[in-house]
Amino acid sequence: MNTTEIFLIAMLLIFVAPYMLWRLGRTDYFAPLVVVQIIMGILLGPGVLGAAFPQYHAFVFNPDVVKTLNGIAWWGVMLFVMLAGIELDLKKVWQYRRESVTTAGLSLGMPLLFGCGAALLLVGYQGWMGPQAATWQFMLGIGMACAVTALPVLVLLMEKLGILRQPMGQRIMRYASLDDVAIWGVLALIMLDWERVGRQAGFLVGFTLLTLLYRRLMTRLPQGDRWYVALIWLIACAFGADWAGLHYMVGAFLAGVVMDADWFDQEQLDSLFKNVLLVMMPVFFLSTGLRTKWDLGGYSVFFVAGLLLFASCGGKLAGAHIAGRTLGWKRGEASIIGWLLQSKGLIEIIFANILLDKGIITSEMFTALLLMAVASTMLTIPIVHPKLNRSQNQGLVNQASS
């Protein structure tokens, strides 16, 4: 077979396998299609399918095919994250800056502390801290892995729950986006790449100046030209952020954040969002799974995964409840927001891959983080859905009584 035919076989696996499992297994409640796609991406990777059928895996996912899949995946996730940024209203971020900064700070800080505490317990045991890591790097890396919120997956989950464009969904987007920017900045400090830190400062200054010019240009362009110019802006921002060490997804999100949704037709925005989700995101899930290194390393990895899951969920919930009491949220909101923000998805897996590549964690710790990411994402819908229904029903009762 030539490369084109093998590529099409790989695409068949990407789209058929998760869809059949999701549809025939009726997993939608506890594992929506996006979660099944993430899990299937891991299962189709070298650690599971590759270990069971190494020759077939090497034949289908050969270097040429993987490079092609990676290119599609990068472009798909850039579009997806840009659209998520467009959905965020910066005017409301500034309008509600006290609430946004307070909640984002607590929802990042508390799981960071819990995760650092869990890492401190593991420092005394061999097999978890990587050979290139200082103790502080290992602790901060694990702490940030517990504090991560998977913005792309969060958008999908809120879309499924029907709250993405509701006031609560927009609030959660503000909190998660502020945390995500902070997370990539802290990652640069963990890597101790001072040259990159200087680049990051230069990128942020240049981005700020170019944003002013870009916004003026977009308001003067006819609507038919705006999408094309927006794509050019997306590519430039993603390149600049990746060159600076902030990761191309941060650049893609920043590119979308500074755009106004009313520059575009809302129906076109919704259609593009759904098409990117349907056509391109499954390829991103698989391409990440192909980079995943899987090594169970004994039953202790499940204990560590449970410890990290407790640190992640407990920290997010504690931060959300403190924010709720401080800001006077309605009853039940803190629990819903905390559980949504704790979903890890692929951002945590990408974060853990970087820590593994840099020798800050071992393959066993990576596996524990991977299990924690999958479990936290699978927990989100089953826990949030009934809480959201109770909250909405209580709101209807209160309206009727008043």
Brief overview, please?
This protein is mostly helical and 402 residues long.
How much of the polypeptide forms β-strand, as a percent range?
under 5%
Low-confidence blocks of residues: none
Query: Based on the structure, what is the oligomeric state of the protein chains?
Result: single chain
Please, how many helices? 19
Main β-sheet, in a few words? none
Number of strands: 0
End-to-end separation in angstroms reads: 70 Å
- Helix and strand content put the structural class at mainly alpha
The average pLDDT value, as a whole number, equals 83
Radius of gyration based on Cα positions: 21 Å
Net shape: globular
What series of H and E elements makes up the topology?
Answer: HHHHHHHHHHHHHHHHHHH
Please provide a written account of the structure.
The protein has 402 residues and is an all-alpha fold. The protein has helices spanning 3-25, 33-43, 49-52, 54-60, 63-87, 90-95, 97-123, 135-147, 151-161, 167-191, 194-220, 223-244, 248-257, 266-279, 281-291, 300-327, 333-341, 345-357, 363-401. Helix 18 runs antiparallel to helix 19. The termini are far apart.
